[in-house]
């Protein structure tokens, strides 16, 4: 049985997290169809489609917001942007961490010293002000640029973990045997070390995606998200801006928050499930 099959069969946390995450991904992939199902060919972001602040009813299941937009349609339209930024930033961050961590841990010497210094510098630099400044100047560039900004400042943590594991693996007898046999560094890295590092890479990706989703929400709530796109954080920011909770229209705020909670919960369960599966010592204390 494959590792994924064993993971799904033996880890209840991973299974639940995977189901939650897959449901959100499917909803994001079907977002255009779901929007048309709810409001026809109308633009979900266009103001004035319906009356403002309509309570939930048979036509508008979650009511409408201050601009007369269907809240459920807005959530469907915003979900793909939030997932794209979270997963893309997580993927870029993990890829950068894998490259730096593998090269640093495997090569050692001056190469390791240089890359470790760069990594440590980025870790100790206060990244929040830099992210805010960069995000403020890239608002018109869309979610892909924002994902790149988030990834640039999140890869050092993954690189340090991967470097430590690679340094441990390179001392194993089978790696020494491969070196003596004149096997190329690339073949050793991709053929011998990377397969053993796959669990750490997968866990790092899940954790980086959660961190990126949190960062996107934080930036959007303070008004620094992509200005040309609607995401879940922007829905929360707008809801807070016109005081829906004090008005008794809390569903406008709860709907995007619930989606984000499910995303965080799903990815966190997958990460915990993988950690416990690949490190059985964690199971007794979990």
Summarize the SSE layout with pairings:
Layout: H1 3-10, H2 12-29, H3 31-39, H4 71-107, H5 109-124, H6 127-137, H7 142-152, H8 155-169, H9 173-180, H10 185-221, H11 232-241, H12 251-278
The oligomeric state of the chains shown is single chain
Segments where pLDDT lies below 50 for 5+ residues? none
Give the class-level CATH name.
Mainly Alpha
- What is the number of independent domains? 1
CATH superfamily: MetI-like
What is the tally of beta strands? 0
Name the features:
single chain; 286 residues; mainly alpha; MetI-like fold; 12 helices; 73% helix; 0% strand; elongated
Describe this structure in words.
- The protein has 286 residues and is mainly alpha-helical.
- The protein contains twelve helices and no strands.
- The relative contact order is 0.15.
